[in-house]
Amino acid sequence: MKRAMAHPALSAPLLSRLSAFDMAGFGPHASLLYRELITSASAGLSASTIILAAAIVDIVQYEQAGPAGYLDGAAFAYAGSTANLGWLRGRRNYLLHHEGPSDGLMGEVDAGRWLAGDAERAVTALLDFLDDLRFAD
Asked: Is residue 120 within 8 Å of 88, Cβ to Cβ?
């Protein structure tokens, strides 16, 4: 079996931003997956990075030991870009639930590059969402 070369999942500035984010307000579930996200992004695991970024958005909204336990619903309603978060959920679903052909999953020559771009967009959507919550203030 021929092994594909990994593409960096994130640009250096975005990986730095991801690593520097203060998780102090997270609950234990979100904290664990956030650390896994940093590891997968650093290792160039684009699909895992996308899946974890989407999972963290959901967990932060519902884990009572984290921001969901002390922020009101309005904070979540206005956090992040609705379009970007909707794209992230849809992309995660394409990766997890095969419903037909999807770019980057069909063995295309440029698949690694496409998935790396999607990972970049996924992490940006997550960090923008988290920054908008300002739960550490």
From this structure: no
In a domain, 90, yes or no: yes
What tokens does 23 get? 């998780």
pTM: 0.86
Give the Cα separation of 14 and 131 in Å (integer): 14
Identity at 92, one-letter amino acid code: R
Range of the domain at 89: 26-133
Count of positions (residues) in the chain: 137
Q: How far apart are the first and last CA of the chain?
A: 50
What are the backbone dihedrals phi and psi of residue 64, each rounded to the nearest 5 degrees, phi first? -65, -20
| Domains: count for the chain | 1
Helices (H), strands (E): how many in the chain?
6, 0
Has residue 9 been placed in a domain?
no
Q: Check if the beta carbon of residue 88 is closer than 8 Å to that of residue 126.
A: yes
φ/ψ of residue 71, rounded to 5: -100, 150
**pLDDT tens, residue by residue, 102-119:** 665 556 566 667 888 999
